[in-house]
Amino acid sequence: MNKERLMKMAGAVRTGGKGSMRRKKKAVHKTTTTDDKRLQSTLKRIGVNAIPAIEEVNIFKDDVVIQFINPKVQASIAANTWVVSGSPQTKRPDNLDNLRKLAEQFQKQAPGAGDGTGTGAVVTQEEDDEEVPDLVPGETFEAAAEEGQATAK
């Protein structure tokens, strides 16, 4: 190509000013207030209630902690929905291993946490006697209850 021709073509290219092409469509900037109003109306339909006096919320994800300071917290227990709104900060905790160990210790101390039984107590022989006896095929509950009372006397 000819260098003079390229320079002539480069001079004709411009991005604005007199004689340039106009925009065909105006860019519409959506305000966040309309999004917030729609979100609040949806949350109202779910039936969330504000929970006051929460100073900090931490969400633990893999190796990252999302922290909200003085957030607005709303919850709907029936819908299993929690809303935390505010400005988040993403952090990598230095003592994540310590937090995991602490959580494991807490689960071990809490009765029935994580073992699926619902109680952390050990059943003794005396408590076992108070439970409903297993039925043998062909017997009724009444007959088994009478036998249980007769042996207890």
UniProtKB/TrEMBL annotation:
Keyword Cell division assigned: no
Region named Disordered: 1-36, 107-153
Keywords annotated in UniProt: Transcription, Transcription regulation
Entry annotated with the keyword Aminoacyl-tRNA synthetase: no
Compositional bias annotation for Basic residues: 20-29
InterPro entries: BTF3 (IPR039370), NAC_A/B_dom_sf (IPR038187), Nas_poly-pep-assoc_cplx_dom (IPR002715)
Subunit structure: Part of the nascent polypeptide-associated complex (NAC).
Family the entry assigns: Belongs to the NAC-beta family.
Protein name: Nascent polypeptide-associated complex subunit beta
